[in-house]
Amino acid sequence: MLPILDEEQVRAVLRMEDLIPAMETALVEFSAGRVAQPVRQMLSVAPHGGFFGAMPAAGSVGLGAKLVSFYPGNAAHGLATHAAIILLFRPETGEPLAIMDGRLITEMRTAAVSAVATKLMASEDARVLAILGSGVQARSHVEALRLVRDFAEIRVWSRTAEHGARFAAEVGAAFMAPEQAVRDADVIVTATAAGEPVLKGSWLKPGAHVNAVGWPGPQGRELDEEAMRSLLVVDSREAVLKESGDVLLSGAEIYAELGEVVTGAKRIPPGTTTVFKSVGIAVEDVAAANLVYRRILGEP
Predict the structure, then answer these.
(1) 3-state secondary structure of 68
(2) CB atoms within 10 A of CB 6
(3) The whole model's pTM is what?
(4) What does the pLDDT average to over 105-134?
(5) 90-95, long-range: CB within 8 Å, 24+ apart, which pairs?
(6) Which domains does the chain have, with CATH numbers?
(7) What is the pLDDT of residue 300?
């Protein structure tokens, strides 16, 4: 019988320490052209303010697809804004291997990819982390980024002060206004559903690194024009040029895909102010699902 793995079964075996290197490999394979992956197909669920996406990928890191829903309005009702399932297949024969919950995988792989970017793009002596947002991505990013940099201080801002203060207390951070949080911070994460910029480039110190992971769609943005004039690295050129308002509305020039930075094909000049814009791509989900499947089977 085809195994169906729920979120708790995924949580029991998926570790950020393992996921970060798995994402490095997936990004390298994608940028090297060894993964077949169309840009995510998003359908608007207009009557309910939601979106439904299909994300297939096939290549050296596996074969599968994620089906994902995004309902921003759920947050006001105490419900998760994202839900997903991942279908995994055997590459050699096309046989289905497993169905697994994809919500936690989406949460964790997004942060793991930002950790890869931070490891390669942020100052090695980065000590101050600023998080704009207080949802699941904010929490996951604190966990992941602590594995690649030794932060002495974490600052948090959220549009909902109550949520932000609670999150800050959970992770040992200070809650403050956005400009105050970002000023002099070494690494900044924007993890919001904002349609208008929440981060201004004038707040960034020279050499700061930004992980912009919110998904306001092609007509929305988290970063203003000045911030987007920083050296820009993306997960997928094709995907951000279809989905990212931060890139489309600013006309920002893309310097590299993250997979190219991992291999050293594109280098980050020391002291450069950098932005990593992530929209999330299917190869990350398939690689993460393969990691879960191998751990369930007890494979290395």
Answers:
(1) strand
(2) 11
(3) 0.95
(4) 97
(5) 90/63, 91/58, 91/62, 91/63, 94/63
(6) 4-105+283-297 (3.30.1780.10), 117-280 (3.40.50.720)
(7) 62
